[in-house]
Amino acid sequence: MKMQHKIFIALSLIISMASCTNEEAKENKSTENSKIETNHHESESKVSLNNGETWIANRETTDGINKMIQLMDTFSETDNADAYKSLSDTLDSEFNLIFKRCTMKGEAHNQLHNYLFPMKAKFKSLASGDLSESKTAFDDLKAHLAEYNTYFK
């Protein structure tokens, strides 16, 4: 199971990194920088502050996170496993838009990825079909989203 989790994360990283930068940035990115970024993400790092300060995120990222928070806050079908699946799909779509609109670079970008990647596993648990697992994932995801402003502004 642990190996499957690592494979899932690795594939998610590859897909997400491919869609994270705009076309112009893709053309200019060197092979060396690409290797550094891949190695950074594969290490499954935890998000950290910028010398005790929050990182500056692009507006689209913050808007996407706020949209996800709003979706969580307005979710009311807490006893319906299918509703959790639908919520997971909607959250995952918003998550993918964050990557599509990503313009961040450098260490702020790396830290954003460290913050975002744990969410994929939570989406999967949210959509599991097991009501208890979905409720736990919902609470975990809600707490995780609430931490965004701790690390980014």
Please describe the topology of this protein.
Elements: H1 2-20, H2 23-28, H3 31-42, H4 59-74, H5 81-100, H6 106-116, H7 118-126, H8 131-146, H9 148-151
Helix pairs in contact: 1-5, 4-5, 4-8, 5-7, 7-8
**How many separate helices?**
9
Strand content: under 5%
Q: In terms of per-residue confidence, which ranges show pLDDT below 50 for 5 or more consecutive residues?
A: 21-43
In total, how many beta strands?
0
Q: Biggest sheet, in brief?
A: none
The level of helicity is over 70%
N-to-C series of helices and strands: HHHHHHHHH
Shape designation: elongated
Please, what is the average pLDDT? 82
**Category by helix and strand content:** mainly alpha
- Give the number of domains: 1
> End-to-end span in angstroms?
36 Å
Explain what you see.
- This protein is mainly alpha-helical.
- The protein has one domain.
- Helix content is about 75%, strand content about 0%.
- The chain is built from 9 helices and no strands.
- The protein has helices spanning about 1-20, 25-30, 30-40, 60-75, 80-100, 105-115, 120-125, 130-145, 150.
- The termini are far apart.
